[in-house]
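User: Before I run my own analysis I want an independent prediction to cross-check against. Here's the chain; please return only the structure tokens and, at the end, one sentence I can use as a sanity check.
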Amino acid sequence: MDVGYHNKSFESSFESVDTAGKVITCKAAVAWGPGQPLVIEDVQVAPPHKMEVRVKILFTSICHTDLSAWKGENEAQRAYPRILGHEAAGIVESVGEGVEDMKKGDHVIPIFQGQCGNCICCRNEKTNLCQRFGVNPLKSVMVNDGKPRFSTKDGNPIFHFLNTSTFSEYTVLDSACAVKIDSEAPLEKMSLLSCGVSTGVGAAWNVANVQPGSSVAIFGLGAVGLAVAEGARVRGASKIIGVDINPSKFSKGKAVGITEFINPKDLEVPVNERIGAMTDGGVDYSFECAGNLEVLRQAFLSTHMGWGLTVLLGIHPSPMLLPLHPMELFNGRQIVGSVFGGFKGKTQLPEFAKQCMCGTLKLDEFITHELPFDKINEAFQLLVDGKSLRCLLHL
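Assistant: Structure tokens:
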């Protein structure tokens, strides 16, 4: 597909339509309850309020976080009806009062981990968290007035999800959760930067700071895990071990730099013992991308005593606590969590997007399927069945 052609043809028609300040009726995939098929229906999208932007979504995809929310695995995510989705790319349709860094026609990426630029966290270079617009599964309305911008044709509220709600032809974002990128960037690929690729690559670059010649083990080879591998490859890691119980992930892993694979089902010893034997005592860095406590423990023990670092990326809905004894930390191993790969979205993501445009990263490897938006339930099933990394939906 000639992405540039589609972007430009859309923009020419988009510019001729003036919908600023008006309610827009459009199609959205509405979740009416946990595990129920999403329903494509007409919804009303209000104009953006102060410091908000309304965005025409052109491409969106499905992440495991969308999947777990759709299943209702986390009580905090059960607000219905709701519009899910948080990985996308689109074009600004209109901006609210006070928005100065974006205008109609700008290409943007929605981000679930916002950056207000003013809070104590945003002003601290040691973190990418934001006190006002950080990721919050409890949040289902806009910050301005505590109300959603979506409603049914009858005027009943439809709730937001993770600051973004991209399973809609139009969505309203806090301006802190929209990142302007180069207009020449291919939007279908840039959608990956909303979550999966940024989360994985950033964990390798910003959080772990993987060094040339180092060894890495990645537990869980979904899109995030493979993005970690891609980041480690670019950084010059000499050994990248992929761990997954789905052997179909291995062929895809080779394309992004994984050098060796382990299927725990094939082993007669714990994974950490196998990795220790392969690496003279353990890897320099391990990444847990599965959201499983036992996997987390294996990842921790797979690192080398004295300096090993484990980065936690998986979402853990279980109330169970970390499976570590405090004394195990005296062996010099460390463990740290990573949100959105440590990227400060508004200030750092535009440069990351430019790196991706230059071919630093192999983004094509992550888009395994493409479908029209009305096939969104089929896209969910592909992810459930472990057949897709990212299924790109065209709106």
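Sanity check: The chain is about 25% helix and 20% strand.
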